[in-house]
Amino acid sequence: MTRRTMRMAGVVLAGMVIFLPLSSLVIWSFAEKWYWPHLFPQQTGLFYWAKVMQGDLLRALTDGFLIAIVVTVLTLVITIPLAYVLARLPVPFKPLILMIFLLPQAFPQLPVFVNSTTLLYQVNLGGKLGGVVLIHMVGALVFAVWTMTAVFKSVPEALEEAAINLGASRFKAFYSVSLPLATPGIIASTLLVFLYSLDEFTGTLLVGSPFVLTLPVYMYRTSVGYELQVASISALMLMVPGIVLLVLLERYMKSEYLSMFGRI
Amino acid sequence: MRLSHRLACLVIALPPLAIVVWLFFIPFLSSAYLSLLREDQWSLRNYYLVWRLYRYDILYTLWIAFFSLVAVLVIAVFLCGYLRIHINRPVEFLFKIPLFIPFVVVGHAMRVLLAPKGTLNAALSQIGLVNMNDPPSIAFGWIGIAVCLIWKNLALAVLLVLGSYRSVDETFLEAARNFGASTFQQIKDILLPMSKASLAVAGAFMFTSMLASFSVPLMIGSGEPPQMVMIDVFYRINYQMDYGTANALGVVSYLLAMGVAGYYLRTIQKGT
Q: Which CATH superfamily is domain B47-270 in?
């Protein structure tokens, strides 16, 4: 075999491994009648797509987006100053602070979130949007603090010192030198926080049930309830934001950021 | 630092720290506390119940995680070796896709694909490989869970292993090629030994995430024992409201994760 055909064979094989599981979702989302053991549905159409547009799916979609936007904005606002301080200043207890932000990555989340749910119910946030936002922020903060600290560390300190030597205050140096230079990294980190919140399942199921519905939880319910068409449509919708992000950011994304994504 | 600066740092650090401490650190510690209480009395009965009811589930979970991890690492070692030596960007891109597909979606997709009357069996029965009247069930068992975990984690493994292979200097590979080394030999004798440390780190990271996997076994589990540990914790809370045993099982899962974390730290310190 020539090198060229080897390469093509590799692409075809990889394409099959990746797209075979996903293709079933596409077929199922258009299937109106599909009897075993036919390879393809007997009748296809947009019936279920039209149906889900009126049901709970739309509510799950809008609630999920609302939660993700709130989580992203809040996380960003409280993380940027902290990340800057951690990257630049000799903060007291820095190792301890960083360790606390590492814990949720190192240990299983579900058994911890079971107790977090109890705590949220104690302050009357269980089963409410606010509670879901807070539980999403736990994971989002871990992710944001680590990536943004790295981003600020990569901005050369000398530039800031030059600004300060020329008479800028520390805040002015941060605002007009470091922040603009860190912007690309911050944008990447922000998009990933948004995606994390949109895809979060465990915390939403525990804290939000049965009142708060996001797309992953809705998909879980419909899938185990054997509403396979509805579940497949939800699954496809869940995949769209991630794929768009991957295509847009593939070239710019550092592998450390991407690797955080293996967890969702 | 001046006192006012210290105060400013504190104010800045407080809100994010408060959220993580309140909703992760305290609940994490209270797992240990609640696991030692039974009807408001100090007791080890929860751990006894874990031993009696769940010891096989713990082994089952370890088995799935171990099997999936070995499979992912073996595939990644050779796939990345191929991608490092013969550059193939489209394949590299394809293997990034699963990173952005959440575990729940993977679970559902595999459920549709691998169920007894799923798409894969339908396709195989067309060419006579599968008996339509008694189709095999790959989903709803440990293999189904393992397939999901492997599929999703392979993306992560390819990313990390390929990164570390790329940091191996090209001259080593050239030298080996000059002596007539095949692709396989270049992987086995150069790339793999020089990336051992990052392979161990990636492995430890994936192993804990596999132990803690919840949405995948929830989507494609059979609902009958044996179950993965996270499912047991969830059912114990949801159906029995038994926080004591659930937390004891949680503590066991932390200890398993910690064992791996210890190994991971040792590998980093050795710096090999």
A: MetI-like (1.10.3720.10)
